[in-house]
């Protein structure tokens, strides 16, 4: 049965099982114990962005695959020698290495598919940089 990854996320467990999960606000309202379970595998989700991301994020336990489905944005990856800027326009994918702080500047309303290992994800407010 088809699903929309904005409304229904998919958890890919370590044992290879795929489980549908509520997406959007329903996902972020799950009990803490459910977040801990989901963090042990990979989460497939889709988001729409009309504004720059309000924070930096970093995934210490796995690389993140991001795929621009439509729109235009610039991914910013914090590297030891400065911020690397990766422009995506229309479609394209990037693998963000584990442990790399990243954010996005939206150039046109965008849809992105994410495959993320959520365990230990950290956030840092852009306003404090």
Q: What keywords describe this structure?
A:
129 residues, mainly beta, Jelly Rolls, 7-stranded antiparallel β-sheet, two-stranded antiparallel sheet, 9 strands, 54% strand
Largest sheet: 7 strands, antiparallel
The CATH superfamily is: Jelly Rolls
What would the principal axes of the Cα set say about the shape? globular
Q: What's the total number of strands?
A: 9
**What is the second-level CATH architecture?**
Sandwich
Q: What is the percentage of strand-forming residues?
A: over 45%
Helix content: 10-25%
Overall number of structural domains:
1
Roughly how many Å is the radius of gyration?
A: 15 Å
- Fill in the CATH topology: Jelly Rolls
Helix and strand pattern: EEHHEEEEEEE
User: Helical region count?
Assistant: 2
- Spatial separation of the terminal alpha carbons: 44 Å
Broad structural category: mainly beta
| Oligomer description | single chain
Q: Low-confidence stretches at least 5 residues in length (pLDDT < 50)?
A: none
CATH class: Mainly Beta
Calculate the mean pLDDT score and round it.
Answer: 91
């Amino acid at each position: 049965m088809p699903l929309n990854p904005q409304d229904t996320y998919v958890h890919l467990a370590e044992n290879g099982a795929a489980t549908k999960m509520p997406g959007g606000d329903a996902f972020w309202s799950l009990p803490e114990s459910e977040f801990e379970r989901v963090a042990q595998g990979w989460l497939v989700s889709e988001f729409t962005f009309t504004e720059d991301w309000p924070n930096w994020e970093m995934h210490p336990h796995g690389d993140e695959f991001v795929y621009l489905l439509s729109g235009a944005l610039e991914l910013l990856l914090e590297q030891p020698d400065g911020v690397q800027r990766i422009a995506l326009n229309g479609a394209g994918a990037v693998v963000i290495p584990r442990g790399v702080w990243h954010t996005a500047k939206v150039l046109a309303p965008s849809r992105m598919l994410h495959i993320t290992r959520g365990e230990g994800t950290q956030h840092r407010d852009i306003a404090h940089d």
